[in-house]
Design goal:
Structural class: alpha/beta
Shape: globular
Helix content: 10-25%
Number of helices: 12
Oligomer: single chain
Largest sheet: 7 strands, mixed
Distance between the termini: 37 Å
């Protein structure tokens, strides 16, 4: 099947960020948009939708509110549509349940006619004859469809990162015993019956897995798995959540960060790990409370917490695993045996295979990453007349706010304004009290304004 009438733009991937763009674009009737996703329905980190877990950002950071609080696709309108406004009001929540955020997004995705699931994109190429991108996707019934788009927005998300020593163990033989935290909920029941579980990673996901495993221990602390928590960071530290600290998640900081030399940007991202890799203070407090409860009467908690530790090697050892680690501050190695391993080691941007046909037309940086301008356009060969945008693949160019939901609606509005060639949704020129650069610098242009720069020469 083929459709020779180009869409104004096509979004590939329907996670929260492209769904935000779809929701905001729904209010622009002159735009003809399509969004494609291989999954049968919307789902957001299903392996970590644990009871009691919440978003780490306020509910106002929904799909639309930070750009258009009048949109019918706001979280508050979701509550109204599901007759939950009064219960929400009485709960006095600012951080909403993660499971409800997933349900809210699914409600939006199922309501928008532009969103199409069971549509696995297999190729994106530039069609010179049509002066448009050609996208090919396969439906669940095997039907192959080709569509044209003047512009494409990639929102394919990130992929799980697993430490090198564990990668040889990610086979069917070790399924359910060596896994990334993205799959934790799938194997949760089996892990709760293991003798000993080691969790690697000091971020929010690692903390939530540790807390859940400890809670599976019985009241006497005898049943349930012995839980070991390892992390390379020097401490199990809370996420930076001060009001001024949160100004790193503003357009102001993005402008400042983009103007820095590449080496300085790389250093800053590593230095700012507590802005996006820390743990909520509530979760750390809950872990402490559970351990305290299990020491009443003089018992020792069946848990060990080890910061400053790097995994060096891992090998199968009978029905368990032998891990070799190094304590960095002491520069000392040690080994131990565990029954199962959960790598809560985060995610990173992936280069989708469907872009292979565009490989020579994308101006990759020397590390194989996209070069992204202030309006989230990827630098392309000048022969490409359309624009390719990315969402959540630009931390190296835009800073720690790239994966954060706080900036999702703002970024989507920025892209929508650029696609439309006009200001569809006004975005703030200044959002922070902090001046990130030196005093007296020349004003920085508004990143969200449409700009005539040729896409192929962006840096």
């Amino acid at each position: 099947m083929s459709d020779n009438t180009p869409y104004d733009f096509v979004g590939v991937g329907i996670g929260p960020f492209n769904l935000s763009l779809a929701a905001l674009a729904d209010g622009v009737p002159e735009l003809n948009a399509l969004f494609l996703d291989a999954k049968p329905a919307f789902s957001w980190h299903p392996g970590l939708l644990l009871e009691g877990t919440t978003l780490q950002v306020p509910f106002l950071a929904d799909l639309v509110t930070m750009a258009d609080p009048t949109s019918p696709w706001s979280y508050l309108n979701y509550l109204r549509s599901h007759d939950r406004m009064f219960p929400f009001f009485f709960s006095e929540r600012f951080l909403i349940p993660r499971r409800e955020y997933d349900h809210y997004c699914r409600w939006v995705a199922e309501s928008l006619p532009s969103c199409r699931f069971d549509a696995h994109v297999t190729a994106v190429a530039w069609d010179e004859a049509a002066d448009a991108f050609a996208l090919t996707y396969r439906s669940a019934d095997g039907t192959v469809t080709r569509v044209l788009a003047r512009q494409v927005v990639l929102g394919v998300g990130t992929g799980p990162v697993v430490p090198e020593p564990l990668r040889p163990l990610l086979t069917d033989a070790h399924r359910g015993r060596v896994l990334h935290s993205a799959d934790y909920r799938t194997h949760r029941a089996a892990l709760a019956t293991a003798d000993d579980v080691t969790v690697i990673g000091a971020g929010q996901s690692g903390a939530e897995v540790v807390l859940d495993l400890i809670r599976h221990q019985d009241g006497d602390g005898l049943g349930g798995p012995f839980t070991r928590w390892l992390a390379r960071t020097p401490a199990f530290a809370p996420m930076e959540y001060s009001k001024i600290g949160l100004e790193h998640f503003t357009p102001d900081y993005i402008r400042y960060f983009r103007a820095l030399p590449e080496e300085r940007r790389e250093h800053l991202v590593r230095e700012q790990w507590q802005l996006y890799k820390g743990v909520s203070a509530d979760t750390l407090g809950a872990i402490h409370d559970e351990l305290y409860e299990r020491t009443i009467g003089g018992g020792r908690p069946r848990a060990d917490l080890h910061p400053g530790v790097e995994l060096l090697a891992a090998e199968a050892d009978g029905d368990g695993y032998l891990l070799t680690c190094r304590h960095a501050p002491q520069d000392s190695a040690f080994t131990f045996r565990t029954s199962a391993i959960v790598a809560a080691t985060g995610y990173s941007a992936v280069r989708p295979a469907f872009l292979d046909a565009m490989g020579d037309l994308v101006d990759w940086d020397d590390k194989g990453r996209y070069r992204v301008d202030g309006r989230y356009r990827v630098a392309l060969d000048p022969r490409v007349g359309g624009a390719l945008y990315v969402q959540n693949a630009e931390m190296h160019t835009h800073g720690v706010g790239a994966p954060d939901l706080t900036l999702g609606a703002w970024r989507a509005a920025t892209i929508l304004n650029t696609i439309s060639g006009r200001t569809v949704l006004p975005v703030p020129d200044r959002a922070a009290w902090t001046t990130f650069g030196a005093p007296g610098e020349a004003p920085v242009p508004d990143l969200a304004a449409p700009h005539p720069d040729p896409v192929g020469t962006l840096r």
